[in-house]
Specification:
- This protein has helices spanning 3-11, 14-44, 48-71, 76-100, 116-124, 153-163, 189-192, and strands at residues 104-111, 128-136, 139-149, 168-174, 177-178, 198-199.
- By secondary structure, the protein is α+β, with helices and mostly antiparallel strands.
Amino acid sequence: MSFLEMTSDFLHSDVFVWGILPFLIFLAQLFIVSLGTIRIILLSKGQKIFSACLGFFEVLIWLLAVAQIVQNVTNPLYYIVYALGFATGNFVGIWLEEKLAMGILLVRVITKKEATKLIRNLRARKFRLTSVAARGESGKVNVLYVILKRKNLPSVMKTIRKFHPKSFFSVEDVRFVSEGAFPLPDGGFAKRFGFFRRER
């Protein structure tokens, strides 16, 4: 038996049709959605080139997966594993984005109480912030603007809740930050791919 005949027999065997191929379709869809999630997040942060590269592989894998489903359109198992891959890919994509912790955030804190201790604590930990005395509907308030890397957000939120548990705060993504206003990473993965972009 020739190699081509052996390959053809394997591709039409029950092991491949009902086991290996469904698993490959599941993995393909998982990668497609995971890459799509990361691509959209990077695109929202202005990373056009890196997003385009991810988009290329995302579409390529999608075409390969869909081609297999079309060739086996009567097999309901392929539709099920495709849907499972989509659902799992959403979870994995969000998990990866959280682990990468890409980008810079602006945290805005509004509190009625004196914020000296909170300001002192954040500045001691090298966070850049600006405090403003303002007036709200119920009287005088203190407004703090804190610039930080996304990976530091849980720590900052814990500090805010410790000193001002009843304060109002909001978190926003920052696409660009001036070099003098924020200490950017010196190297590593983030700098090589421009996750923290300088604007001069």
